[in-house]
UniProtKB/TrEMBL annotation:
Keywords: Cytoplasm, Phosphotransferase system. It comes from the Bacteria. It is found in: Cytoplasm. One of its GO terms (cellular component) is cytoplasm. Residues 1-88 form the HPr domain. It comes from Luteimonas yindakuii. PANTHER family: PHOSPHOCARRIER PROTEIN HPR (PTHR33705), PHOSPHOCARRIER PROTEIN NPR (PTHR33705:SF2). Belongs to the HPr family. It holds the Pfam family PTS-HPr. GO terms for biological process: phosphoenolpyruvate-dependent sugar phosphotransferase system. The keyword Cytoplasm applies. This is HPr family phosphocarrier protein. Its main location: cytoplasm.
């Protein structure tokens, strides 16, 4: 299992578009993925689960991935967070 500490830095937080981008990215991986924020733990491959976090800008998030392709999945999600969900372009 890999765990990464991430921070939501995009302007609108994990709103519908950012959540859809995250879930779509993770759907290409076979590993299990979980996001933890504000005392809640959700399936990171579930749009409804991620939306329930209601995680706004500045919210710390823990990503946990477990499975055969966990390293590339964790790297891809970390890169998506670093790129601010590609919303600045």
């Amino acid at each position: 299992m890999i765990q990464r500490d991430l921070m939501i830095t995009n302007r609108l937080g994990l709103h519908a578009r950012a959540t859809a981008r995250l879930v779509q990215l993770l759907s290409g991986y076979r590993c299990n993925a979980t996001l933890v924020a504000k005392g809640r733990e959700v399936n990171a491959k579930s749009i409804m689960g991620v939306m329930l976090l209601a995680a706004g800008p500045g919210t710390p998030v823990v990503l946990r991935v477990d499975g055969e392709d966990e390293v590339p999945a964790a790297d891809a999600v970390a890169a998506l967070f670093e790129r601010r969900f590609d919303e600045d372009s």
